[in-house]
Task: inverse folding
């Protein structure tokens, strides 16, 4: 209508009257269509809709664009969500947790470039290409998926925490582009080469447990490391760790370690796990005056003299189960350590199972159990009992 009015005006009025055109144009503005924050958003997945309604505190009625724009934190854990269509309208979202679902299409998430925290663990994901635009992420959790390619992460320059545990990763090269990382979890993948980790000089926490790592050399210059978990790998040499003096937690269980001498200068350690290795000599461990927990379960330790002779060696607990302790260690030395206030977790279980050796490496002989009563004896006893019962029935009634 306004267009017709303007056209008529233009045709029927002299040129000097064109000063009215801006006024007419202004009057047109309210009549032109424009995006409305009152627009209704369709949410195809009923489980996702339920989460949104719960978050909004809106059990009924339309979900509008303005409603979703105000959400800053959204958690939908183990909610059987298959589709997150509609989440693209959550333009104010900072934290998003969607772990333990089975989301087939992540495209709606790719526009949420303001996200700082994203949890997509346990979603059956094989590709993370769709989240490459989320370059403001600071914390990203992707564990328990089927991811192989880490290239989409290379643009996430603000990322400090990255969880990639339990995937199918073998190539860590893309991580070279993320030197700002502080915490990295790579456990239970298919990793043998950790060379790219040498570039991550800011790491404080690192987990490479349950992989196929045979060489720890790339970790030698990660001087900020405080917690390192490298259990269930294939390495023997601990020399690369000798300069990591900031370490307080060190888990090296289930490897091929025979000597702990290379890490004897890591005196800030409070927790040291060395279970399931091939350690015999415990003398280098006495330097750990700040140690609270020491786990030597399932090694080859037979002598505890170094522990006993150092009165300043006082961890809160020592686990010695599964070691071939000699007679003196199993009795006198364990008792001496216990008297010092140390919880020595070996004595009761090992004694009950007979799991310690005596002099000459021979197993200590415990008193044998009484021989088992032959089955024939039980049969004879039963026959005697039956005979007594029959006699009582035959003669007892007469009495």
Result:
């Amino acid at each position: 209508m306004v267009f017709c009015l303007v056209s008529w005006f233009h045709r029927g009025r002299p040129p000097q009257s064109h000063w009215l055109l801006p006024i007419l144009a202004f009057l047109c503005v309210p009549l032109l269509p424009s995006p409305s924050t009152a627009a209704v958003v369709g949410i195809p997945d009923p489980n996702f809709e339920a989460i949104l309604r719960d978050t909004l505190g809106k059990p009924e009625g339309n979900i509008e664009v303005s409603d979703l724009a105000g959400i800053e934190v959204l958690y939908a854990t183990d909610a059987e969500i298959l589709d997150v269509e509609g989440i693209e309208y959550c333009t104010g979202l900072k934290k998003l947790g969607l772990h333990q679902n089975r989301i087939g299409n992540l495209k709606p998430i790719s526009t949420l470039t303001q996200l700082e925290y994203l949890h997509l663990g346990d979603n059956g994901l094989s590709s993370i290409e769709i989240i490459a635009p989320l370059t403001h992420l600071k914390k990203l959790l992707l564990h328990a998926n089927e991811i192989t390619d880490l290239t989409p992460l290379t643009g996430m320059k603000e990322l400090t925490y990255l969880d990639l545990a339990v995937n199918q990763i073998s190539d860590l090269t893309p991580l070279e582009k993320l030197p700002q990382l502080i915490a990295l979890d790579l456990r239970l993948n298919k990793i043998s080469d950790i060379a790219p980790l040498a570039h991550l000089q800011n790491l404080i926490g690192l987990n490479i447990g349950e992989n196929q790592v045979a060489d720890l050399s790339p970790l030698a210059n990660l001087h900020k490391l405080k917690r390192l978990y490298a259990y269930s790998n294939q390495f023997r040499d601990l020399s690369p760790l000798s300069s990591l003096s900031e370490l307080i937690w060190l888990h090296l269980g289930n490897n091929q370690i025979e000597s702990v001498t290379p890490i004897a200068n890591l005196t800030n350690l409070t927790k040291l796990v060395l279970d399931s290795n091939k350690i015999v000599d415990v003398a280098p461990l006495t330097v750990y005056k700040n140690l609270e927990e020491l786990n030597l379960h399932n090694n080859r330790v037979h002598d505890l003299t170094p522990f006993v002779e150092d009165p300043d060696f006082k961890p809160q607990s020592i686990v010695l189960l599964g070691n071939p302790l000699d007679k003196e260690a199993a009795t006198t030395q364990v008792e001496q350590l216990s008297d010092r206030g140390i919880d020595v977790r070996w004595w009761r279980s090992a004694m009950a199972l007979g799991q310690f050796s005596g002099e000459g490496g021979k197993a200590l002989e415990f008193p044998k159990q009484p021989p088992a009563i032959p089955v024939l004896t039980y049969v004879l006893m039963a026959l005697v009992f039956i005979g007594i019962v029959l006699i009582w029935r035959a003669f007892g009634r007469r009495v």
Residues 127 and 147 are 6 Å apart (CA to CA). The chain has eight helices and 13 strands. The longest strand covers residues 73-75. The helical segments are 2-12, 21-28, 46-56, 65-69, 305-309, 327-339, 347-353, 375-396.
